[in-house]
Amino acid sequence: AVELGANTFVISGMGDSDDQNRGSRLEMALKEALGNDEMEVFLQPKCLAGTGELVSMEALVRWNHPELGHIPPQEFIPIAENSGMIGSISRFVYFRAFEMLMEFSRLGYSHLRLALNVSPLEIHDGTLVKNLTNGLLFTGIDPRKVELEITEGSLLINSQTARSILDEVKSLGFQISIDDFGTGYSTFGYLKNFQFDTLKIDKSFIDQIQMDNNSRAIVQAIIAMSRTLNLQTVAEGVETQEQYDILKELGCDQLQGYFFGRPMNFDDFVNYLGDTSVK
Ligand code: C2E
Ligand code: CA
Ligand code: CA
Ligand code: CA
């Protein structure tokens, strides 16, 4: 049991109603999270496959609640989406990430690029363009350094609204990337309907690449197709030297994963930069 203010909830052995309790407890806590300074933006390196050079970083949000502890984004992002809070969380993440990009420039790492995760809901509710333009205005970053990673959404695929919003975002200078390619939601329909610059191959294909010929053949085919479509390729979830070697051999452009570095806070990332990269 965990003490939560005046009430006590049992966290282990939860049944449906306890799941609901946790859900509504998280939803309430989420409303306070930004104001109470409980959220942070971490950065994970992305490296060139050819040279290993660090070229970009993905912003990943972290929520540390004083009583509930660390809550993974996979748990609270859907809650934020369903309760209308995703726009304000994204605003926070974009601003903070833009600020860090500016700071890296000042420190001499002006070549570094940034990737942001975009929820399909922000595209629909109109907050995406507003948050991005305000972020540009307040921080002065160069939008050409920023890439938006977009996943799933049966909502999006045939939507004219989504298309015109992504066109607008591209005309502001941002690049767009299809995230988790090959999973249920991020598929060929998206490639056809939107002008992506980059394709991120889902971790599930990378996991088995060293022992499974099918995974390797699929990744090879995705890379070949990306070349034809003029898309850059990124592999996510690279954990071993063996996976690195295979992906390099297959001609993947960029690699990301624990082998290169875990998501880190700003200070750790600055140290990481000092240790690994050339200014
Ligand atoms: P994603 O965009 O596919 O992000 C990659 C996830 O894989 C991250 O988990 C990252 O920490 C993890 N990861 C990276 N390299 C490795 C590896 O080598 N091995 C393993 N096992 N995992 C690796 P995280 O940070 O927990 O985020 C999970 C998901 O939550 C993200 O998946 C993304 O969909 C969502 N998310 C995270 N931050 C944000 C955000 O700021 N906004 C939105 N809308 N969604 C976010
Ligand atoms: Ca992502
Ligand atoms: Ca991904
Ligand atoms: Ca993924």
Automatic annotation (TrEMBL):
Annotated EAL domain residues: 23-277
Keywords linked to the UniProt accession: Membrane, Transmembrane, Transmembrane helix
Gene Ontology molecular function: any one: cyclic-guanylate-specific phosphodiesterase activity
Taxonomic superkingdom: Bacteria
Keyword check for Oxidoreductase: no
Keyword Membrane included in the entry's annotation: yes
UniProt-recorded name of the protein: EAL domain-containing protein (Putative c-di-GMP-specific phosphodiesterase class I)
